[in-house]
Amino acid sequence: MTRPVRIDGLQYANWSEKIFRQMQEGGVDAVHVTIAYHENFRETVLNIEQWNRWFEQYPDLIMHGRTGDDVRTAKETGRTAIIFGFQNPSPIEDDIGLVEICHTLGARFMQLSYNNQSLLATGCYEAEDPGITRMGKQVIREMNRVGLVVDMSHSAERSTLEAIEISERPIAITHANPSFWHEALRNKSDDVLRALGQSGGMLGFSLYPHHLKGKSDCTLQSFCDMIARTAELMGPQNLGIGSDLCQDHPDSVVEWMRVGRWSKEIDYGEGSKDNAGFPPMPDWFEDNRHFGNIEQGLRAAGLSDQDVAGIMGENWLRFFDENFGPRQV
Amino acid sequence: MTRPVRIDGLQYANWSEKIFRQMQEGGVDAVHVTIAYHENFRETVLNIEQWNRWFEQYPDLIMHGRTGDDVRTAKETGRTAIIFGFQNPSPIEDDIGLVEICHTLGARFMQLSYNNQSLLATGCYEAEDPGITRMGKQVIREMNRVGLVVDMSHSAERSTLEAIEISERPIAITHANPSFWHEALRNKSDDVLRALGQSGGMLGFSLYPHHLKGKSDCTLQSFCDMIARTAELMGPQNLGIGSDLCQDHPDSVVEWMRVGRWSKEIDYGEGSKDNAGFPPMPDWFEDNRHFGNIEQGLRAAGLSDQDVAGIMGENWLRFFDENFGPRQV
Fold this sequence. Notes:
alpha/beta; TIM Barrel; 9 strands; 39% helix
């Protein structure tokens, strides 16, 4: 029997041949990679240009992923399909026409807000959440039309519930965990998770220590037991991994992620002045070679073979098939 | 028998539903449309956004054309495939990475220079022509790699001969006529035409009056006799139409085409102070409904059915099949 597909719903590494080889070694068939945090359109295009170079330089390791079938091709040829996404709507600036342009260039996920208020929605660090904006409603409709998935990982509660309601296609929370397990502004309430599951949306479980119970000391068993409990809450078919792996970056990068160009003052986000850098990853998930640990942990937590295969990648693949292109009528 | 395909190798109209309907009425299966004269990358993207709107608004009349097969689909469904091209390399700015980005967005032709010196090559109005630049050589290689066709319609003689030599794939002169018929800076010498034909390149015959013998009074017979003579010079399989139809534009647009942002003084280009606007088209080719006149004229000039079908579109279609994507190895 061919092994099930293995997909990571979010990474933002300091990309290199080393990491591409680790993906291959870990049997990771597809990764949704962040290509914009605060970049405007032109800067995002520069990031795509860099990826085009890597596709040219490492054709035996990686390929551009635009569809579920591209993931299957990557799997069959022993490569990793790289799927582009934005953590912030900054690449579309104030121009709804850029939604289709970015989709044509390969974008498949876009967060409507990143921690702060955006033109479209509210981020999870704002004190007030007035919900999806006028432009946000228009952009969700356009994203639905072309097949650019709404991602609410860093968005606030009301905006997230409204996005699930307004979007005519299922949305994703590519990288976050349930609040019932670890209370954090970035983690999600039972209400959000239930609404997400009922609408056919996907949750990718994060391995970023600030999202983990016990942070860097979180155990594999605690993580996998949490997944089993979430499967009961919102259905195992709506779950995947979204590791939020930020490998090999200097700490200046987490500062960029948090502050971009929007503040002259440092904002420590989930960290603190005394703990401002990237936290160490749990020792059972340090890089792409460790996906097998999660698979084993899920089995040990009592999940069925089918549920484990779904969570490790089959669910993301089905979601890609259904949501990465214009809607079939 | 199905009718042969009909393709126009260049137009730049003031696009409207009226013109799209005229294309349909004229049985025009594909048009290479100019989407940039002097626009930088971001401005070119705005023009693509406008086309995306038209594709959404007029799905029964037009569709985006990226391949020869898209042209066949357009023909089978009674629509016109719209193929994007640039008259100037301004959309790639000083960034070779934008070659692939623009190709991904649909660009299939790019002129290396437009009348003036560019970063890549020399235009036909410059006094000196030092040939293809350092960046030009790099960009030609990259265009060859991704399948973006080099177009030298507005380039100077030496640059054009060098582009034919340097390019590892055939190039195009999408819209110009032979100098032997009508001497003009924009028309092409026998040397250029022979080299173009020997390399498998394509010449699109222009209907723009400044390129015609007798200008607006040029006769259909004179035009078609010229085509027959050019077929002897460079082979009938290397010929097509590139009408340069600039329909429904105010005269301010021809000024933009000529001056862009590069001069504070007016430059009249092929016109003059007393004749600064768009010249009237010959009465046998006023818009897309008149392609049948050319077809009849070519038959009257003694060309075979096969040659006529080739010139009216089959040659462009073969060229699209061979040159619009990454090279097959």
